[in-house]
Amino acid sequence: MALLLPILIAFSVLVLFSILKKLQSIRKANYYGSKIPGPPGHWLTGNMSMFQNETSHGLIKMMQEEARKARDQGYSVIRFLLPGQLLVYPITGKATAKILESTTELHKGEGYEFFGPWIGGGLLVSVGERWKAHRKLITPSFHFAKLEGYFDVFNQESKILVDCLEKFSENGETVNLHPYINRCTLDVICETAMGTKVNAQFNHEHPYLQAVEGYTAMMLEYGYSPLMWNPFLFWLFGHKKRQNDFCYTLKKFTGDIIAERKAALESGEAEKSTSKRSMNFLDLLLSKTESNVFTEEDLRQEVDTFMFGGHDTTTTSCSWSCWNLAHNPDVQQKVYEELVKVCGDDPNGDISYEQANQLNYLDRVLRESKRIIAPVPAVERQLQNEMEIDGYTIPAGANISISPFILHRNHHVFKNPEIFDPDRFLPEECAKRHPYDFVPFSAGVKNCIGQKFSILNEKVMVAHLVRNYRIEPMLKFDESLPCFEAVSKPSRGIPVKLIRRI
């Protein structure tokens, strides 16, 4: 009993300290939040009631409406308050530029910490000298000359995708395009980045795919379940074990690929099995490992980051592009006509790098699709220093969220923003807007290093699908809504019918 009393006192002191610290953070958030436009909130819970019992899509709709009201009053930022947290959203391109062009505020938000066990300190989350050094070393892998070397793989895997879908065209069955695009993209990423064929298009139960889907679904669960934020409860309810199991699969997959590629390079077999130009990403990193610029762990983290960033986002973007084309048959027909004009009428012919860059209408279509539904719902920064945006003081520690779903629905910039109109991206229309009014790949200092790779990959994939099939939707557009995990995954897939063109 004598031993129990000091333990209870110590525990009570810790609890009291935690409560006081939380109350202090609530007071600070409320003080600064009171000076920034945003919906009124409770002194203790802030705007928590607005976030409860909402689907992820419902939350975005609520935020879009709050942003619309704020813009109509001339404001450029809005804020939401959660207990002890100040969330700030720039709602104009000018305000967004203030964040994304900062050379000092590069720290990702707290939400990215969940990916630490998987991607570690890769380019997505690293900062400071490490980020600068790694970015400089990796950038040459995405030079246009290197991208051209990937087109053999883009075409080959896209044709396999077309063949895999043939049976649905023949029997008239509805097909969910999303998992097929998902597997095609994984095959492209693995072969172009790491020189390894995984044949996911023929192996529908690939463990890497299942682990990616499981891990990103956990992130959504983590974001909306405060009990999971406590490390002890996270472990107690088995979430830590699930996370570790997914991480083991993900890391083993990339680790095995790295080991195989390293062995092939050392034995001189690499150039016999794959195109030298198509392997620049992993080869470059391996060369830096040999010269002690990259450690083995650096290498794994950057490969995992590339796999995460290049696979899921491209899959999501391509899926929504097909959904938008299915619901806009006149646009789809114009895309087909441009493909015939630029690439010829052979549906099985390869699309060259030069031809892809001439597909201007398709380019506008893909951009408009990313405006309607961005593949990544938000990019976050956690301020390290106090910052002023358009006269509003935002304290250190606040989370600033750049959400394309808010920026891209600005009716002052995009007239009738709910309407799908590729001509918004004609050069003369783009010139009228602030460059940061459209940020599907983020922008500024930490813009997406692989965005050109992703765009060209998607272009070739969509082109092969449209030149072979007419795509017809089997649900209304808003019956498959974005489900906001790490990416904007379609909640009910992309269910379509495919009609052979030739």
TrEMBL record:
<dbReference type="InterPro" id="IPR017972">
    <property type="entry name" value="Cyt_P450_CS"/>
</dbReference>
<dbReference type="GO" id="GO:0005506">
    <property type="term" value="F:iron ion binding"/>
</dbReference>
<keyword id="KW-0732">Signal</keyword>
<dbReference type="GO" id="GO:0004497">
    <property type="term" value="F:monooxygenase activity"/>
</dbReference>
<feature type="binding site" description="axial binding residue">
    <location>
        <position position="448"/>
    </location>
    <ligand>
        <name>heme</name>
    </ligand>
</feature>
<keyword id="KW-0560">Oxidoreductase</keyword>
<comment type="similarity">
    <text>Belongs to the cytochrome P450 family.</text>
</comment>
<feature type="signal peptide">
    <location>
        <begin position="1"/>
        <end position="25"/>
    </location>
</feature>
<dbReference type="InterPro" id="IPR050196">
    <property type="entry name" value="Cytochrome_P450_Monoox"/>
</dbReference>
<keyword id="KW-0349">Heme</keyword>
<protein>
    <recommendedName>
        <fullName>CYtochrome P450 family</fullName>
    </recommendedName>
</protein>
<dbReference type="InterPro" id="IPR002401">
    <property type="entry name" value="Cyt_P450_E_grp-I"/>
</dbReference>
<dbReference type="GO" id="GO:0020037">
    <property type="term" value="F:heme binding"/>
</dbReference>
<dbReference type="InterPro" id="IPR001128">
    <property type="entry name" value="Cyt_P450"/>
</dbReference>
<keyword id="KW-0503">Monooxygenase</keyword>
<dbReference type="Pfam" id="PF00067">
    <property type="entry name" value="p450"/>
</dbReference>
<dbReference type="InterPro" id="IPR036396">
    <property type="entry name" value="Cyt_P450_sf"/>
</dbReference>
<keyword id="KW-0408">Iron</keyword>
<keyword id="KW-0479">Metal-binding</keyword>
<dbReference type="GO" id="GO:0016705">
    <property type="term" value="F:oxidoreductase activity, acting on paired donors, with incorporation or reduction of molecular oxygen"/>
</dbReference>
